[in-house]
Design brief:
Strand content: 35-45%
Helix content: 10-25%
Order of helices and strands: EHEEEEEHEHEEEEHEHHEHEEEEE
Low-confidence stretches: 297-304
Number of helices: 7
CATH architecture of the largest domain: 3-Layer(aba) Sandwich
Distance between the termini: 54 Å
Number of domains: 2
Structural class: alpha+beta
CATH class of the largest domain: Alpha Beta
CATH superfamily of the largest domain: Gcn5-related N-acetyltransferase (GNAT)
CATH topology of the largest domain: Aminopeptidase
Number of strands: 18
Mean pLDDT: 84
Largest sheet: 8 strands, mixed
Length: 341
């Protein structure tokens, strides 16, 4: 088999580019569910550190292609915009093992380029995965190829938000950075809990009665906070706190309540407890959450629009890396911090 690898982010023969363009045209006419991703514009080449294609030089056809997509200065995804030509998607067997050309030819090159660009956090992800078993099987099958380039596979639990889609994520751990963290935002979970709504007027009154002194508080002040209280200090036995302990938390560090406009404030407490207890949730007592989204400290841009149903008044997050916003709305929110059940 005469296979040859090309990275089209580098100087590429015109013959190879013609083969790529022909394949993209074929995809556009196919029934491929993600065919809109495979155009020159939608390959997102400006975000790719590499975009790799494997060519059958005898047939002059593409076998597979994928890229190394940069997400941040030190974070990137391998096998991005992955495509495997149906002509070559039979279960090719070498000895007693299935042939996986993307992992054998393309991903090792992407990992090499990642290292050259000082990437410490690497991962692959999949949007449409039939089951946990299928996801784990893909991760397990990658292990022999990763070992050859001094890496290991670490499947992550749950789903993560990547450019507005929920995806399963598997970290590729570089031997030289065994403790690297991806800091991706997990899938946001939200539900309706009528318990909190009966305390809306009471919480509003409590907030209005307090003096606001942000100079002595560790919350982010960007003029979005109208009023802010520490409910844990004012009323440590409040039914809301007792209910949170009973239903949602194994341990609570602090329960805040705020009137805000636009930006749901993030906690900036530097204490060891606050850093350790980064699981948190938001409880809307009133206001419009339909335009909910996050501002990523990693990407430095707005993204991950959720469009939360206004009937849902509980939203649960997995970390405090992101700042959470609601467009053009004034609302009252309860923000507890602790260890979720």
């Amino acid at each position: 088999m005469d296979f040859k690898h090309y990275d089209i982010k580098t100087k590429t023969p015109s013959l190879i580019m013609n083969i790529l363009n022909h394949e993209l045209e074929n995809i556009s006419k196919s029934s491929h569910t993600l065919k809109n991703n495979y155009t020159i514009d939608n390959l997102k080449l400006d975000r790719m550190l590499t975009f790799d294609i494997l060519v059958d030089m005898q047939k002059l056809k593409i076998i597979c292609m994928s890229g190394l997509q940069r997400f941040a200065d030190n974070l990137a995804r391998v096998s991005s915009r992955y495509y495997f030509s149906p002509e070559y998607s039979e279960k090719w067997i070498r000895g007693n093992k299935r042939f996986r050309p993307n992992w054998e030819y393309l991903v090792p090159h992407q990992i090499t380029v990642a290292r050259e660009n000082n990437i410490t956090g690497l991962f692959w992800s999949i949007e449409n995965c039939k089951s946990d078993k299928s996801f784990k099987l893909i991760a397990d099958n990658s292990i022999p190829f990763l070992k050859k380039v001094n890496c290991s596979s670490k499947p992550l639990d749950g789903k993560y938000m990547l450019y507005e889609t929920k995806q399963r994520v598997c970290q590729i751990v570089l031997d030289e950075y065994p403790d690297a963290e991806l800091n991706l935002s997990q899938e946001i979970k939200y539900s309706y809990d009528p318990f909190f709504e009966k305390y809306k007027n009471e919480i509003d009154l409590l907030i209005d009665q307090q003096e606001l002194n942000l100079d002595n508080d560790s919350w982010l002040s960007d003029k979005s906070i109208i009023k802010l209280i520490n409910l844990s200090e004012i009323m440590p036995k409040h039914p809301i706190i007792e209910y949170l302990n009973e239903k949602y938390y194994d341990k609570i560090f602090k329960v805040m309540a705020a009137k805000v406009v636009g930006n749901i404030p993030e906690h900036r407490d530097g204490s060891p407890e606050a850093k350790a207890y980064n699981m948190h949730m938001k409880i809307k007592l009133n206001g419009d959450w339909s335009g909910f989204y996050t501002k990523s400290n990693i990407f430095g841009r707005m993204g991950f629009t959720q469009n939360c149903d206004n009937n849902h008044n509980v939203i649960i997050f997995d970390n405090n890396t992101y700042t959470h916003y609601v467009n053009d709305s004034k609302f009252t929110v309860i923000i507890p911090y602790g260890v979720l059940k």
